[in-house]
Amino acid sequence: MIALLSSTFTLFDLAALLLLGAGWWGSGHLIEHPPANRSSVTVLMRAYRRDWMTEMLTRQPRIFDAAILSSLRQGTTFMTSASIIAVGGVLALAGNVDRLDSFVMGVGVQGHSPVFWQAKLGVVIILLTHSVFKFIWSNRLFGYCAIVMASVPNDPDDPKCIPRASKAAEINFRAALNFNRGLRSIYFAFAALGWILGPWGLLIGTAITTRVVLSREFASTSRGVLVDD
User: Fold this and answer.
1) pTM as predicted
2) Which residue among 27, 73, 119, 182 is buried most deeply as judged by most CB within 10 Å?
3) Does residue 95 sit within a domain?
4) Cα separation values, 196 from 22, 25, 110, 203, Å
């Protein structure tokens, strides 16, 4: 199988695949560790999450906070289910690549062996599987956050209030961080689908996806709203 793949894929394919990995990892690293003079939306939201937990200390009752957290958990549950369905769909396609081969030949792309297409779809499956694990862990962390929030005393003067609220804020941020990582994996899974049309398709898909991901974090209207506080 290795000999078959080495004879089918070119250095251009390898370069495009490496660029996909670099775009996926590099964009995530830049978003989570942005320059000091230009914070990403992810980093800006960390401060708002801390402020949320500070406001929670004096909010009675805390039904509003519980409702927000429940909504966040529902989002992670939905994305987990959607990603699992997507993985199943790609696996089904990998098991019936004859239709895929017929499709690409219809748009002018050379036909190949089933192993060729399965290798390309394997990259998509890896990214989607990564997103599933991230969404599951994010859901679990939001659950931890709910428990820590519930342990915050109702009396704002209690010495345990501020430390536990800070812990809840940090766990909340970690949950959101993993949720965002799962979303980025889905974005780049779509980019990986471009490989079906060849290395140029993968390069273009990676470039577009990287630009979209970074622009939403560093050049979006929502970022301007968060900064203007």
Assistant:
1) 0.89
2) 182
3) yes
4) 19, 22, 11, 11
How many independent structural domains does the chain possess?
A: 1
CB 97 within 8 A of CB 119: no
| Tokens coding 220 | 């979006």
Report how far residue 76's alpha carbon sits from residue 83's, in angstroms, rounded to the nearest whole number. 10
CA distance 172 to 176: 6
| Sole residue written with tokens 């799962």 | 182
What is the rounded distance in angstroms from the CA atom of residue 30 to the CA atom of residue 56? 31
Closest CA to 174 of 25, 27, 45, 37: 45
Burial call 68-90: b when 16+ CB within 10 Å, e when fewer? ebeebbeebeebbeebbebbeeb
In a domain, 115, yes or no: yes
Amino acid sitting at position 63:
I
**What is the extent of the structural domain holding 63?**
49-197
DSSP string, 74-124: HHHHHHHHHHHHHHHHHHHHHTTHHHHHHHHHHTTPPP--HHHHHHHHHHH
